[in-house]
From TrEMBL, chain A:
It is found in: Cell membrane. Belongs to the binding-protein-dependent transport system permease family. This is ABC transporter (Permease) for alpha-galacturonides. It comes from the Bacteria. It comes from Actinacidiphila cocklensis. Gene3D superfamilies: MetI-like (1.10.3720.10).
From TrEMBL, chain B:
The chain crosses the membrane at residues 37-60, 95-120, 132-153, 165-183, 215-235, 277-296. Belongs to the binding-protein-dependent transport system permease family. This is ABC transporter (Permease). It is found in: Cell membrane. It comes from Actinacidiphila cocklensis. It comes from the Bacteria. Residues 96-289 form the ABC transmembrane type-1 domain.
Amino acid sequence: MAIAERDATGRAGAAGASGADGRAGRTGRGTRLKRLRRDWVLLALMAPGVAYFLVFHYGALAGNVIAFKDYVPFDGLWASQWVGLDNFRTMFGDPDFWSAVLNTVWIALLQLVFFFPVPIALAMLLHSLTRDSVRRFVQSVAYLPHFLSWVIVVAVFQQVLGETGLLNNVLGDAHLHTVNIIGNPTAFKPLVIAEVIWKDCGWGTIIFLAALTQVDEQQYEAAAIDGAGPWRRFWHITLPSVRPIIVLLLIMRLGDILSVGFEQMLLQRASVGADAAEVIDTFVYYKGLVGGDYGYAAAAGLFKGVVGAALVFAANKIAHRLGEQGVYR
Amino acid sequence: MSSATQSLRRGRPARRRGPVRPAWVEQPKAATTVAKAIALAAVVLLVTVPFLIIVSTSFASNAEVVANGGWVLWPQHPTLRAYRELFAGGIVTHALWVSAGVTVIGTAASLACTIGLAYALSRRDVFGGKPILLLILFTFLFPPGMIPGFLLIKGLHLLDSYGALVAPVLINVFNLIVLRGFFQSVPEELYEAARLDGAGEWLILRRIVLPLSKAALAVVGLFYAVSYWNAWFYASIYLDSGHWPLQQVLRTYVVGGSQLADSAAGDAGAVAAPQTIQMAVLVVATVPILLVYPFLQKYFTKGVLTGAIKS
């Protein structure tokens, strides 16, 4: 009896080993109970993490039912009245909501056109440098702003471009016209793009640089010997080498088109007003957390989540149609 | 003969000191080189100059700031007055302690939970591994949303507690995937050898897997630390102003433009120009990032890349 049991646990251990290295065959896989007993240390190790996801993601996800309720804080989440799709009906008839959607998509598209190519260009510039020390120095400096908070980034931009900021000081000293950039709704969208470029264009190069260094140097050499100049080598070797990543990031960006830097927008909405700076996320924030209309705000948030997920699916489908890898299979 | 080689050497000194250029690469045109140099200089200056000026202004004296219209490129008589006022026990001093505490405790908690989950999920045959991984990856695609998150924290009675800054962001899926990838790359032979010696999972994790993953742990730990240090939104909705961390104080008084000089100055007597105080807060909020940045940089390319490739 004892021998038989030891034999069984021994085999279960071996099964764990062969499973862990990823081979498909899981011969001698024990029953549920045996696997449970074998893995109890691992299960204990993952318990806090799993509990976190269950409570703070799935628990919160379940809280989305308030989008279908008329939430009254005093009654609490469960006792509040069901109102069906009322919140969504109000939302679809709310011009403020559509203005927020429009702003979101508009800013996201502007970012796609004016921000997206910048890291690619910078990566190619950095990759073309033959002097390693220069490249590494520029990389270190360019990555840095990514690690600063949006509060600091917005503060820096205010101090440099604000009404009494550095730029206007310099312009004033030179007896030129001062410019009004911060707190000016018409200048807000370009400002937002500039901030994103300043903060993340360096960091964005990492993934492209990785792809560029994967290219076999011999390809360039062979092309050069066949008479291809720098431009043709760039067009036929460098660009194709980063194309899958460009497509991948484009897909992810399109799937994420309904969210544009919530913190960035929230920090500056007060200074330029809702017409210029309200995006879906700040709409949810102001309607719900500031205005107290939780059910309505949750409906807007849920709308964004569902449409966002659908967009990711759609973008991924399109990528497969185009013969690219996509985010997942 | 020897004079010929010498003249050759003299003719191309830059080539010898400079980078190794493969023979098949064309000599770059002067215009290209200049354009590249200008672009690179622009990148470097755009990042560094604002900071130089902010640091300079924070060290300048009142008279100098006023004389220069609010900005100082290089302080003639550097003074620590603004910093002395900030650290005299006002809002900023308190906020600094809050930020430091949340960063240290939050990073430790996040690392511990991420390591446990990543290690268990790195074992392919672990009980429930696949469904749990799917469950986690799904949260990436469909985040729960701001309002339900807020009501959950309220329902758990975490309002006005520092737990509200840590609990909702305890594990970052990206960091989890990076660590799991690293753990998976530990050679299987090591596990088998340890198991033959009678080591259990806990011992294997502590003695073999963690020591082998130091680089990844450093990256993930620093990512967590940076995100806790930089966070302000949860503080703004979950905590009252007496509990605020530094970034939220910075937001209110520098970005929001409220007067900090009156309320934040401790009993340091003389009040510095608000501009110098504001710049000093900005510097204090940035310096910890600058301090960990070299370590971050040393490891992150490796860590980020493995993560990117795996996911």
